[in-house]
Every structure is written in structure tokens, then in C-alpha cells.
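Postdoc handover notes: sequence design on the structure in folder B. Input C-alpha cells:
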């Protein structure tokens, strides 16, 4: 299957149920991204700032870029001018920095709070309590140039479907609670980003509105230049 075929079949799967597809293009070449773009894909996710900036410069300007990896506060300024969404907000300090640069650029930046749901120590994100604490803080309510659109989470990398399902269920339940408590009057709080190549079908069953797929879109890129297509 070519990248274009993958995009088409994924769109057939996700468009009818209104789940948005983020094509995760980290480590992929500009040519590969262009192939997905030519197949109609406009939403791409990257996890490294420098790589994202380089690709933004080289590729068509109607691409919507999402940052999906950990963001250091000192790098916020490089992406704010063009970023479509920052999915990986994991501290109030980071959100304040985004707000500061958004204000300088006269922009409002869409963000997701990354919430920690996995049973692994390596993953970034806010705990449930920390996310609530952030939303309740005066510092947050004082911010005027960021808009929290929802939550993002990464499930544990495990073969246990039950565990993955439970983690996504927990995040969906938390999302619904947060929406009720803090965004009841705000229809733009509408995004629950969960699901990667290995677990996106489970995520969709559990109420995901946005999946982030790398391998499923681009293939596992091994010795690519040996292929004929
Ligand atoms: C790499 C990455 C993805 C995509 O992973 P695949 O397994 O290739 O689909 C999704 N989300 C985040 C945060 C990632 O870093």
C-alpha cells in the first residue's frame, strides 16, 4: 500500500464518524509528506521543534501542523507564529509561555492538555489532579491568548487490549467531567486526541475524536530506497 492508499483508506474509516486524522510525520522526509499532502491530507503532527520548523518552511503553507511532543519553554517562540495546535501542554509554565508569545504575535493558540494515563514512567503529561489544579488556577484564567480545545493522552505500550481500553475509558470519562465543570459554555472544548497506530481502533471505540497515526499512514520506513514505488 502506498502512502496515498493509506490516507484514502484511513479517511474512509474516520471521516464518516468525524474522527480527525493527524498524520504523524516525524522522521519522514519532505517527499513522503508531500505524497500524503497530494492525497488530500492537510493535518500533520511532529514531535521535534527544529524538524517541525524546517518542514514548515519547505512544505505548502496550507498544512496544519500540530506539535505532539514535549515542548521546552525556550523553544515556544519558534513555533507560535505558524503552529495550528500544541497537543502536548504539560505544565502551567509552558501554557504561560505560549500565551506570552501568542500575544506578541497577536494570535490565539489552540492547545490540548496532555494527560498522563499510561502505566509507564517515561511519558510526559499532567496527572488528573494536576490538570484540574491548572484549570482552577488564577494564572490560567488570566491567560487570554491560548485556547484549551481538549485533552491528549498516550496509552501504555502493551499487548493487553484490556489495559489500553481501560486507560482510554478513564481519559474519556475525565474529558467529559472537565467539559462539564470548566467548559460547559464553550463548544470549542471538543477535542479528545487519543489513539496511535497500534491502538487507534480501541481509542475510537472509547470516544476519541482525533487519532495520531505515523506507521499506519507512512508505513514502517525500513530501507525504503530498496522499494520500487
Ligand atoms: C510517534 C507518535 C505517534 C504516532 O505513532 P505511530 O505508532 O507511528 O502511529 C502518535 N502520538 C505521539 C505523541 C507520538 O510521539
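Designed sequence:
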Amino acid at each position: 500500500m502506498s502512502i496515498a492508499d493509506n490516507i484514502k483508506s484511513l479517511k474512509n474509516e474516520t471521516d464518516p464518524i468525524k474522527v480527525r486524522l493527524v498524520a504523524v510525520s516525524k522522521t519522514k522526509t519532505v517527499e513522503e509528506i508531500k505524497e500524503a499532502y497530494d492525497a488530500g491530507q492537510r493535518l500533520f503532527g511532529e514531535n521535534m521543534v527544529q524538524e517541525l520548523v524546517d518542514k514548515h518552511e519547505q512544505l505548502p503553507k496550507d498544512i496544519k501542523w500540530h506539535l505532539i511532543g514535549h515542548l521546552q519553554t525556550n523553544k515556544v517562540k519558534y513555533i507560535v507564529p505558524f503552529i495550528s495546535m500544541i497537543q502536548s501542554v504539560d505544565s502551567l509554565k509552558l501554557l504561560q509561555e505560549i500565551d506570552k508569545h501568542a500575544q506578541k504575535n497577536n494570535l490565539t493558540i489552540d492547545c490540548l492538555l496532555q494527560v498522563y494515563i499510561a502505566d509507564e514512567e517515561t511519558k510526559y503529561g499532567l496527572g488528573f489532579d494536576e490538570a484540574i489544579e491548572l484549570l482552577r488556577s488564577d494564572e490560567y484564567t488570566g491567560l487570554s491568548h491560548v485556547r484549551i480545545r481538549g485533552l491528549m493522552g498516550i496509552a501504555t505500550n502493551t499487548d493487553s487490549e484490556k489495559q489500553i481500553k481501560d486507560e482510554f475509558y478513564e481519559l474519556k470519562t475525565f474529558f467529559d467531567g472537565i467539559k462539564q465543570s470548566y467548559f460547559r459554555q464553550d463548544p470549542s472544548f471538543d477535542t479528545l486526541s487519543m489513539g496511535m497506530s497500534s491502538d487507534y481502533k480501541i481509542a475510537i471505540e472509547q470516544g476519541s475524536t482525533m487519532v495520531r497515526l505515523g506507521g499506519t499512514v507512512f508505513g514502517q520506513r525500513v530501507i525504503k530506497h530498496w522499494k520500487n514505488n
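Context for whoever picks this up: The CA atoms of residues 132 and 154 lie 18 Å apart. Don't rerun without checking with the PI first.
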